[in-house]
Amino acid sequence: MWLSGRAEAVPGSVFALMDAAKGRARAAGLSVTDLSIGSSDLPPPDAVLDVLRDATRDAGTYRYPLFSDTAPLREAAADYLRRRFGVTVNADTEVLPLIGAQEGLAHLLLAVTDPGDTLLLPDPCYPPYLGAAAVAGLNVVTLPLRPERDFLPDLESVPDSVRPRVLLLNYPNNPTSAVADAAFFREAAAWCRARGTLLVHDNPYAELTFGEYRAPGALEAGLDGVVELHSLSKTHHMGGFRVGFAAGDAGAVAALARVKGAVDFHPYLGIQRAAAHALSLPDAVGRAGAAVFEARRDALIPALRALGWEVATPQASMYAWARVPGLRDSVSFAVRAAEQTGVAVSPGAAFGAGGEGFVRFALVQPPQVLREAARLLGTVPVG
Ligand SMILES: Cc1ncc(COP(=O)(O)O)c(C=O)c1O
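Above: the input record for the complex with pyridoxal-5'-phosphate. Below: its predicted structure, written as tokens.
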């Protein structure tokens, strides 16, 4: 028996159940429309792929990358933060490349907490947060995200006796697609500073914003006691490349670098070059990708409302979060829907108890496919 208590504590994933349901739908001859996973179906910008292709033919990229080799990506990240958010960071001490935001979060928790410390987490939330908390041995206290508060947590409701080591937030939000304004981040940062809590803001959807809306970042509230995780996965459609960066509080970034030093050697240099190039591209490139998701949103939301499902019009992210009237068991509904129609969505309960009654759609198919998926879901009994 080689299972540690730490490994055992990592929660199982509802996505395995969904995977099996998709398999049964295929075996029954249905064509599967998979809206259950938030992996961008768009390609990275051509110029980014060109940089990577050239790098693979440069023998200088084959060795282990050292910290000094990460300077161009750190500088590109610092430039991006300055241009996009008006935030100035020191590229040497306040930025660190990541092998994706998810890797960064898991190691950051190990770097800044001790077992038994308290982590304040939204409910619902991106499920790997719970796994990362389990690996770090943390005591999780949840903060409900409710529609009547526009899916923003009520920090004032947290009893004074709760002294979290870390507060983890994520806006534009997965799964609710809610957004937060700069004042919210200022209040959250002030709340954290007053309690000696590190504010960690997971921000992979920063550029997937619609219309005139631009998402603010948590670092706009100051770097002291704040770390933000950025990712190229959604903003530049580079999920498989596994690259992102952490930026913010120098002490927390140094702690993260220390833990990562025991675990990895930074991303492949070619991927670092591709990511640095992606971060330096004009805003228009990111806007073009975001517009594709916006058109999908515009197709899906009315189709869901026509079913009587309650859904806000997202201003950002790649999701729609719909409350289904009468839905009590979102997992069995999602499994049945996949088996009967071939349409796979994420059950709200997969994101925590606070997600029950909802389903999440990832906008990863063209508009007409999303409309047809909504129509098919309307044929599945809810109860
Ligand atoms: C909130 C959130 N954080 C992190 C990630 C993963 O980011 P990365 O690919 O950079 O690890 C996702 C992916 O769906 C996400 O939704």
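Notes for the reader.
The domain at 5-43+284-377 is CATH 3.90.1150.10 (Aspartate Aminotransferase, domain 1).
The first strand starts at residue 33 and ends at 34.
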